[in-house]
Amino acid sequence: MKRFLFLSLFIFAGLLYLFEIDEYISKQFRFFAEIKKSYLNSYIELSQKVKDHFSHEELIKKLQEENLRLKEYKILYESTTSKIDSLREFLINVELPSINAKIDIVRVLSYVKFDDFTTVWIDKKLDDEIVGLISENYAAGIALNKQGKSVGLLNGNKDCSYAVFVGNDRNSGIVMSNDSDERLLSVKFIPIWAKVNLGDEVITSGLDNIFYEGVRVGKVVDIKEYPDMKVAYIEPYAKPLTKRYFYTYQTINE
Asked: Which InterPro entries does the UniProt entry name for this protein (predicted)?
């Protein structure tokens, strides 16, 4: 029944349009003409709003996609800028020794373990040699090959040690970690007869072929004597835990 009624109305409307009866009614009755005009204007206005709505939706979607890409570029730009600034600061402070040497820039990749900030993976390829890590012209640790991977052992690591001179008398010793105070380093195996004073500067000796002679390590802040040696506790100059770049030194034997 509903289908028949709908079909009848459709045929009736078609006949009205075919015989232009609607125009005749509009001419005879102004009221219907105004209704028709209002209907057409409303239809056109509504159609334009619908079109504008979908156009705005498409524009909003496009802008959102562009905004997402710009955010990605912004993150990449900030990351790259940070790396460049770190590298620029690093290069400004590099002092090369006036001897035959090979200097390489080393970048820290990540921690080896999250609970140990003094052991890091580095991007320098090493064989069996041990090389010194230098930051702002200060001794910052050592680098070595460990199970086929390059590892940096920073100052304070229990496995990080290298040869040094203490004070103007150039007393020999070995820098190691300090178990009692992680802010300090220990210089052990100083001869018992050696004269060591508070404030003495500690530099690398180069006798272990890890660093060249003269790289500054720190200053003596405490001294203890034992039956067979003296131990000096030093405040290191380098702050390696905050650095992303170091440089390494290797002697070139002609």
From this structure: Cell/Rod_MreC_2, MreC, MreC_beta-barrel_core
